Each structure stands twice: as structure tokens, then as C-alpha cells.
Amino acid sequence: MKRPSADHDAKDSSKVPRSCAPLPTPTADAQQLARLLEVIESEVLPKTAQGVKEGNKVFGAAVLRDVEGYPTLIAETNHEILCPLYHGEVYTIKKLSDLPPEQRGKPEESLFLSTHEPCCMCVSAIVWAGYKKIIYLFPYESTRDQGIPHDLQIMHELWAVERYQACNKFCASAGIPDLIEALPEKARAPLKEQVARITARYAELSQKYHQELVREVGELGEHLGLQLKRCPRSRTERAFPVPASAKLARLRTLQTSASGCDGFRFQGMSCSADRSVILWDLQVAEPLQKFRGHPGSVWCMDVDWSGRRMVTGSGPGDNSIMVWDFKDGFVESVITGHEGSVWAVAVDWDCAHKALEASKGIGLQPKQQGEEDGSPSPRAPSHTSHASHATGQPDSQTGEAEGRRARKRWVKRRRR
């Protein structure tokens, strides 16, 4: 069966007949609205402030019993760092579901309070969870002005509609600003002051979220600029221009090294909450290769530039460590054991190199006759290199230069 065209979808999307009458628009008096704003300000906002520090967005939600006083069942905030689906509303439903049944309340007897108008995913989750009554503080336009336009964009691009039906068969939603405007004029002033105070706090958190995102990448650029100056084979001293793709990837860690210099190309490696690791050409600010393997966010890594290997650690949903050969782009081994996120990894690469050299016979020779009685004997280039550096007398055959050549031979073998 042929699918209708996009134009057909857009033209007919607003003409789908309703199966029944929509639910009535939610209403609230001044006292009830003051309580809703109090929940946002005193219960949701503190969790959101902590969430923003961890890299999450500013969206939060709460579920209240729809009775006098609106007692709170649960209040939560966005946890996208744990899972990209954990928007504030979805995470609130998830955490409420973790409670014993007697503490959850019945969805049809509850009010779902959201700090921001729920996105298409969240409003669907609210409906599927059985909630009928939704009240929010900030509409889509405010969310857009706070620097997050995705809610409206997805609605426009996927379904060619301005927004979902506020009141429909499954749920009815209303914004607190509209509910305030419906009150007598004398009752509006204190509520508007409360809204202004909360709005200022969310603007501050939103700015902090975006500044943190820019700061992470900006400091990364400054760091790379310094590294470029230190790189003796680089001809540039310009700062690193951060590409848009780096901002979207939400870089968590980046490692660079003077040994990452390859001619006039300076390389770095970054890991991200998007579950990928990227090898960058920092000279031109472009990705060279992307590695995927972790099912969870990649939180940390340690890179062996000379051996072209790395070790990565991941977060929730994975909690594993992976050893990579990033020259050929495959995972050598997966190590499990942590019950929580792996926040840091550190590898003794020098020891790893020596062990590999020993296994391949590089840099090691059998004991020579006369060694025990103190007579001179040939020594491995790696050991000789260190000794020559100590004495300041490199030798053309067994000194520092030979040590470097032996090391290069080992790297070539490793790369094959």
C-alpha cells in the first residue's frame, strides 16, 4: 500500500475527526495555583539545580493528589545523562512506579504538574500512564526562548502541526499563566510575583546549563590551543575553533598528547554522553573516526598514543570497561564487574609496553656469559637508552638513538 505524500499528511492532519468530546479544561483558584507554584519552587527546583550541575536540562515535574491541599506524591527532574528518554516527566513517572502501590495514588485521581509544557514524548507517556489532568508553568514558546526549541520543531516536522490538542479524549492540559489571567485582578498580583521569581530562577539555571555546555567545549578549545603551542612540529598557534558537532556531542573528556602529533596534524580523543568516542584532527577541528561499542554513555578513557590503544569506561546501563585497538577500530576485550558507572580509568601503559616487548623479544636479551662476574655484556636498547640518558653519553650502536629505533620497530609491528 502506497504511503500518502508529506503534503497530503500535512493537509489532512488537522481534519481527523474526533471520536468523542474532549475532557474539560483544568481550572484552579488562587490558593490552588499558589500551592502548585510552591511545589515547583520548593520541591522541583532544588532537584533541578542539582541536575543542571550534573549536566541535565532544566525540566522537572511532580505528581500531586487531586484533593484539597494538593499533597505531593513525588517531585523529580530531568535525568537525560542517565538515559536520553529520562525527560523530567518520564523520570517522574518512572520513580513513582518504583514506589509501593499504596504510595503511588491512582492516576485518574492525581494531577500531573510539569514545569514546562510536556513534549510529544512526555505527553504521550503521561497519557499512557493514565493521567487525565496536566498543568504546566512554561509553554513551548518559553522553552524555545530558553534555548531548547526541539519540542516545537519535532511537532512541526513529524506531524506538521503547531502543537497537540490541549484538551482531548485522553487528557486535558492548561498553563498556569492562563489560569492566573482567569482570576480576579486582585488575586493575580501575588501569584505573578511568585511566577516572576520562579521564572528568574529557571532563566538562571538555563543560562548555567548552556554556559556549562559552552564552557566544557570552550575550555577544551583553550586547552587544545595551549597544546598546539607546545607541539614543536606544529606551525600554528591559533586557538581551537570548536565545531558545532562537538557542542552537540556534549564532550565529557578529551585527551591529547605531544606524541599525538603526526607531522603537522595534531590529534585528540574525546568521549561523550552520546555513547561514542571520536578521534579528532585538532589542527583542522574535524573528526577522523568515530568508535561505538558501549551501550551506555562513555564517561572516561585513557589513551596510548604510541601503541594506538585506549581504555574506556561507561555509565548507567553498561558499567563496563573496554580495551580498544583504535588504529584498526575494534574492541580487544570487554571487562565487567562494576555495579555502578565507571567514572575514571588509568592504565600503566609503560608496563604494558614492556610486557609486550618481553613477549615479542624486543628490548630483552638472554643473560650473557660473564655477566655474573661483572664483565661487560650487551644490553637491550630500551635499558641502554635509559642508562645513556643518565650518563649523558649516548652511543651510536647501543645508546639513545638505537633505543628510539627499537621502539619505532615495535610500534610498527604493533600496528600490523
TrEMBL record:
Cross-referenced InterPro entries: CMP_dCMP_dom, Cytidine_deaminase-like, WD40/YVTN_repeat-like_dom_sf, WD40_repeat_dom_sf, WD40_rpt
* Ranges of compositional bias, category Polar residues: 382-399
Which keywords label this protein? Repeat, WD repeat
- Name-wise, this protein is Dynein assembly factor with WDR repeat domains 1 (Outer row dynein assembly protein 16 homolog) (WD repeat-containing protein 69)
Residue intervals of the CMP/dCMP-type deaminase domain: 52-137
Q: Give me the stretches of Basic and acidic residues compositional bias.
A: 1-15
Q: Where is the composition biased (Basic residues)?
A: 405-416
Using the UniProt annotation, give all residue ranges assigned to the region (Disordered): 1-27, 360-416
Q: Does the keyword Repeat apply?
A: yes
What Gene3D superfamilies does UniProt report for this protein, alphabetically? Cytidine Deaminase, domain 2 (3.40.140.10), YVTN repeat-like/Quinoprotein amine dehydrogenase (2.130.10.10)
